[in-house]
Amino acid sequence: MAGRPSKYETHVKPRFNEISEWLQSGATEKEVADNLGINNKIFCKYKKEYKELNELVKNARRKPVQAIKAALFKRATGFVYSENKTVTEYIKYPDDVKKLFSEMGVDLSNSENPKVIRHEAYEKYALPDPASAMILLKHWDKETEWTQDPASLKLKKEEFEFKKEHLESGDW
After folding, report:
1. Looking at the domain assignment, is residue 73 inside a domain?
2. Cut 0.90: pTM above it
3. 72 plus 19 within the same structural domain
4. 29 and 63 in one domain?
5. Residue 112 DSSP label
6. What does the alpha-carbon distance between residue 146 and residue 128 come to, in Å, rounded to a whole number?
7. Pairing of strands 79-90, 115-126
8. Closest to 21 in 3D by CA, of 71, 66, 60
9. Which of 59, 77, 95 delimits the end of a domain?
10. Cα(166)–Cα(160) distance, rounded to whole angstroms?
11. How far apart are CA 59 and CA 155, in angstroms?
């Protein structure tokens, strides 16, 4: 006699595609658990228990992280973008034009608010963002230990070495 299937088999595994979509669009694991109708602790337990679920969560998070990295890089280095604008200009006929049209038999009373609509496209440049550049340098340039405050970094290293020496010598 077989027991009742676990919620993993009934609530989680059949919805792997949805889970992936939710995570890629920024849902938290708690929100995913709520959407599945299970407790967040159970969801975490399933992640530890079932390698396929753990891999699904990791892989679903990769795509938005890559998009964020790309956006941060663009902000750090500057970029070109297009901006489109629709401009509507209302035309007021001068009296002599109204008179001329009237003499030609054109009735302007139905065109109280004549207008000209123009579409304008601009190419703009977003300047590099220093804060984004600093974040990238801190995380991507680890071999040179890039920092915006080299003096503070040097002081922290000296403090670390001092504490390490005193702990090893038993002075503390």
Report:
1. yes
2. no
3. yes
4. yes
5. S
6. 18
7. antiparallel
8. 60
9. 77
10. 10
11. 40
Task: Examine the domain organization and report whether 165 and 94 are in the same domain.
Answer: no
Give the CA distances from residue 153 to residues 99, 117, 140, in Å, rounded to whole numbers and listed in that order: 80, 59, 17
82-122 pLDDT, tens per residue?
A: 999 999 888 887 888 878 888 888 777 666 677 788 999 99
Helix (H, G, I), strand (E, B) or coil at 91: coil
The phi, psi pair for 33, rounded to 5°, reads -60, -45
Question: Do 4 and 59 sit in the same domain of this protein?
Answer: yes
Please check whether residues 32 and 5 belong to one and the same domain: yes
| C-alpha of 48 from chain center | 28
Tokens found for residue 2: 């077989």
Average the pLDDT over 133-153 and give the result.
Answer: 77
Separation of alpha carbons 115 and 106, rounded Å: 17
* Per-residue pLDDT at 112: 65
**Domain final residue, candidates 77, 96, 116:** 77
Domain check: are 5 and 71 in the same one?
yes
State mean pLDDT over 131-150.
Answer: 79
- Least Cα distance to 16 among 62, 65, 55 occurs for 55
Which residue segment(s) compose the domain that 155 sits in?
141-172
What is the C-alpha end-to-end distance of the chain, expressed in Å? 65
Condensed to tens digits (0 to 9), the pLDDT of residues 21-68 reads 999 999 999 999 999 999 999 999 999 999 999 999 999 999 898 999
Residue 103 domain-assigned (yes or no): yes
